[in-house]
Design goal:
This protein is mostly helical. About 90% of the residues lie in helices and about 0% in strands. It has one helix at about 5-125.
Length: about 130
């Protein structure tokens, strides 16, 4: 064996060691990629039922929101009607005060005056004169 063949043998052993050293991480990377592939497949299989259920939930939520919108519209109508009733009651009370309030106050004042006059007349009777 010559010096060149010994150097070639050492180089060949070094290349084999390097290939073996690099093969271990490559094999581990291959397993990781295989596990990732299986995980993605499982996620794909499991996500379809979840998405179907989510779709049903969203549909039901939309139906409930539509019902709530109808109720909200009804409440708005009732509120508007209550406002109209309150305004009309206010107008009625103003009309009553304008038409009956003044004469009623005048009548009460007149009757009070008459009562006081009658009381004053009976209390202020003059004493009899003696002749």
């Amino acid at each position: 064996m010559s010096l060149g063949s010994i150097a070639a043998l050492i180089a060949a052993i070094a290349v084999v060691a390097l290939v073996a050293f690099l093969a271990v991480p490559l094999l581990k990377l291959g397993r990781v990629l295989e596990e990732t592939r299986l995980l993605v497949r499982d996620i794909g299989h499991n996500s379809v039922p979840i998405l179907v259920e989510l779709r049903g939930t969203v549909t039901e939520a939309n139906n409930e929101i539509a019902k709530l919108a109808v109720v909200t519209e009804d409440v708005a109508k009732v509120s508007a009607n209550a406002t109209v009733v309150a305004e009309q009651a206010s107008q009625m009370s103003q009309l009553f005060a304008a038409t009956l309030g003044g004469p009623l106050v005048k009548t009460a004042a007149f009757s009070y005056g008459v009562r006081n006059a009658i009381k004053g007349r009976s209390a202020a009777k003059p004493a009899k004169r003696v002749k």
